[in-house]
Amino acid sequence: MSEQQTAGTAGETTPAGRLYGVGLGPGDPSLMTVRAVEVIREADVVAYHSARHGRSIARSIAARHLRPEHIEEKLVYPVTTETTDHPGGYRGAMEEFYAEAAARLAAHLDAGRTVAVLAEGDPMFYGSYMHMHKRLADRYDTEVIPGVTSVSAAAARLGTPLAEGEEVLTILPGTLPEEELTARLAATDAAVVMKLGRTFPTVRRAVTEAGRLPEARYVERATMDGERTAPLADVDEQTVPYFSVAVLPSRVASPPPAPEHGSVVVIGTGPAGPLWLTPEARGELAAAQDLVGYTTYLDRVPHRPGQQRHPSDNKVESERAEFALDLARRGRRVAVVSSGDPGVFAMATAVLEVAATEPYADVPVRVVPGVTAANAAASRVGAPLGHDYAVISLSDRLKPWEVIAQRLAAAASADLALALYNPGSRSRTWQVGKARELLLEHRAPDTPVVLARDVGGPTERVRTVPLADLNPADVDMRTIILVGSSQTQHTNNTVWTPRRYPD
Ligand code: SAH
């Protein structure tokens, strides 16, 4: 405990008082900690925030521990809505209020008085106390007494586990924009949305948009008088107070209600790693009951309790599609997993093709996009695909080489930059050499060519070579080739294609 003095060395200096941020818990006074009660009992000054009406929830929680000898400091917010005639606007008004409030507390501390600032819930968790802490804790001996948050209180009242095992719990202020809420809610396992009230309609739309309404719960005034819990879907939005939260509980502990009908969603997981997995795709992977996909791609998806995985080899796509659709027909929520984007040389078409046949007429199929390899690879060197470009697979397993050759020639003569997927494998080794010869008929030998292998993965390697030096031996299943147009520039490590042609 550092002892701070107000000033000077003369005998009569008063040691400064101590500052406490006191968490009071969510509302029920019996949920205050023993330490919070002790600190309040020993404090000279008890401070609390309130709106202009003067009623303080924090004070009412602590009321039974307040004595007439306590000096009470009301810190009354000048504004609660965001309209004010302060020259600095809402922010300016608040800044001035916090500075003035901190000065009042500092005066007590300088006079040697112990100051307890009351905070509903926990002081460091979205609380007003923090504004005092930031202004005073570096100058005065300070202690924060943690409190039970509304998050814990809400989970306790719902009687459902909030997060278990490796589940991620996301805490969101309801004041965020709707789309931001939607993305976060879609991607997370469990969630608590705080600060409802006026934000309620937005929050409920976001929960719905994220597909989480069936499992979403609502808790109003947890552990306070007038407490209420309900399914979020049933809440009348006119009646929602600020002291309420929306909760998406643990999916492991209480799985969301089974969907009424099975469905298939074809998901693109991006070229590698969670940085390139969209929030929507992440959420869909978590919500699926069954995962179907090529072993290599499925291995990238984290295991979740209760989910069935059906890995397969990379060969017969239509069989995999049929398998997924059959599961869905039996009522399961099925995710078919592709790398990159599922519509780019991947499973989406195969699933839709089979789904168009009679037995699957009633199975809903959705496609969720992903970052495709071409764009991920391009980003590593700059913007080689910054102007018009063509996307061509060099695999002649599903189309004859003559078609590929024709397309390469057509794209090359149109001066399109190219993204070449599936350039080669252990068994397909000559396609890249043939492609180089075709392209050289239309393009200069020094045209920049980007060879990108395992982009975003642990063995990533990206090089730029002149077209004339493109070597089939440098290419495998995990490589994508980007070929520049006549305009593509290459300096040092950067490759880009300008968006305009010279006049
Ligand atoms: N649906 C995927 C493409 C599947 S075809 C997508 O949108 O990216 C498989 C080909 O994609 C590979 O042969 C390779 O050319 C390319 N590819 C996929 N991931 C890659 C990565 N991380 N790095 C380089 N190329 C990749």
From TrEMBL:
Q: Which GO terms describe its molecular function?
A: precorrin-2 C20-methyltransferase activity
In the record, biological process GO terms are: cobalamin biosynthetic process; methylation
The EC designation for this entry is 2.1.1.130
Compositional bias ranges of the Low complexity kind: 1-14
Which pathway is this protein engaged in? Cofactor biosynthesis; adenosylcobalamin biosynthesis
What keywords tag this UniProt record?
Cobalamin biosynthesis, Methyltransferase, S-adenosyl-L-methionine, Transferase
Q: Which domain of life is it from?
A: Bacteria
Q: InterPro entries from the entry?
A: 4pyrrol_Mease (IPR000878), 4pyrrol_Methylase_sf (IPR035996), 4pyrrole_Mease_sub1 (IPR014777), 4pyrrole_Mease_sub2 (IPR014776), Cbl_synth_CobJ/CibH_dom (IPR006363), CobI/CbiL (IPR012382), CobI/CbiL/CobIJ_dom (IPR006364), Precorrin_MeTrfase (IPR051810)
Asked if the keyword Iron belongs to this entry, the reply reads no
Q: Which PROSITE patterns match?
A: SUMT_1
Query: Which SUPFAM superfamilies does the UniProt entry name for this protein?
Result: Tetrapyrrole methylase
Pfam families tied to this protein: TP_methylase
Name of the top EC class for this enzyme: transferase
The UniProt record lists the Tetrapyrrole methylase domain at 18-230, 264-470
Q: Where is this region: Disordered?
A: 1-21
UniProt lists the family membership as follows: Belongs to the precorrin methyltransferase family.
Identification of the protein by name: Precorrin-2 C(20)-methyltransferase
